[in-house]
Amino acid sequence: MTDKALRLGTRRSKLAMAQSGQVADAVRRLTGRPVELVEITTYGDVSRAHLAQIGGTGVFVTALRDALVRGEVDFAVHSLKDLPTAQPEELVLAAVPVREDPRDVIVARDALKFTDLPRGARIGTGSPRRMAQLNAYARTHGLDIETVPIRGNVDTRIGYVHDGELDAVVLAAAGLNRIGRSDEVTDFLSVDTVLPAPGQGALAIECSADNAELIAALAGLDDPFTRAAVSAERALLAALEAGCSAPVGALADLPPHSAPLERGDPHADVQIVKEMRLRGVVGTTDGTRMVQLSTTGPVPETDEGAAALGRELAAEMLAQGAAGLMGERAH
Predict the structure, then answer these.
(1) Of the candidates 251, 11, 16, the residue with the CA atom closest to the CA atom of residue 154
(2) Considering the entire predicted model, what is its pTM?
(3) Is 25 one of the annotated active-site residues of the chain?
């Protein structure tokens, strides 16, 4: 490879810059080449409308992908949960690095846990998925909460709690870990309470399909377990014909591989993994109706095998009425 700097396309947000900076360091170590960050503003960054209103799927991704196709950047880093499930032919998902903690977390006033929030507590989230599951949990456990739709970056969201406007907000553990704000967390939401978004906690490194040299280099950052898990989760989302703003949660884990991940230690020694479990949930945002199912199979050998597991579970969910719970289905 030449010594010419590789151009990494990234969104401008603090979280995106932190994620991209970490990937840039890894690529420098891997290739010995300098990497420069190229900041790109996406529609999702400038619009203040709620994600479901502006299309949800791809609003943080399209501008980065356009820059890749035009050759303005060599590769791009996305939060995998923002990536539409359809992969453009001219681009390739060159690497899915080791996943961060996939769980959602609560940042609440007075260091409160979710179950200790006062009656009528106002909880902020921009995610129909989180609303659906929090409301369903509250309904079945005798809690009285109000979910409030919010937008904004991490600082803005946590600010609502510090200013007393909200009692709590729900965020992704991975994002807070990556920007060094995990000390703000007052409670980790078990995946049995709230299943994360498909791909949550994972990053996607994308580049042009005709750049074989770079694809080969970036493959050194790929984690096969993470890729298998997110392939299953995203296939479930695609088979439900739902966009990334739909109230769908999914998590593929590889017990016992996933136990240290949920403890926040992705690098712990793991035992031999023989099975992959996939869980999926879809529900109305008020939490009154939910379809939640799981399936277990051998660890997939290929992306296609993982995707087949996702499609199989989606078919079972659709048979139980999942389609009617998603509001407008995104195509």
Answers:
(1) 16
(2) 0.87
(3) no
Q: Locate tokens 């195509």: which residue?
A: 331
Q: Which of 66, 74, 82, 116 is catalytic?
A: 82
Task: Say if residue 176 is exposed, middle or buried (CB neighbours under 10 Å; 0-12, 13-18, 19+).
Answer: buried
Give per-residue pLDDT as tens, 137-162. 999 999 999 999 998 889 999 999 99
- DSSP assignment of 163-228 equals TTS-SEEEEEHHHHHHTT-GGG-SEEPPTTTSPPPTTTT-EEEEEETT-HHHHHHHGGG--HHHHH
Give CA–CA dist 201/199, Å, rounded. 6
Q: How far apart are CA 179 and CA 167, in angstroms?
A: 22
Q: How large is the C-alpha radius of gyration of the chain? A: 19
What is the DSSP secondary-structure string of 26-42? Answer: HHHHHH---EEEEE---
Beta pairing class for 75-79 and 6-10: parallel
> Helix (H, G, I), strand (E, B), or coil: what is residue 229?
helix
Q: Is 137 helix (H, G, I), strand (E, B) or coil?
A: helix
The pLDDT tens digits of the residues spanning 157-212 come to: 999 999 999 999 999 999 999 999 999 999 999 999 999 999 999 999 999 999 99
Q: 280, 252 in Cβ contact below 8 A?
A: no
Is there a contact between 299 and 271 (Cβ–Cβ < 8 Å)? Answer: no
Sequence-ordered list of residues with C-beta below 8 angstroms from that of 7, at least 6 positions apart, any chain: 35, 36, 38, 72, 73, 74, 75
Residue bearing tokens 């681009």: 91
Q: What is the DSSP letter of 116?
A: G
pLDDT digits (tens, 9 = 90+) for 37-65: 999 986 555 545 544 443 445 667 888 99
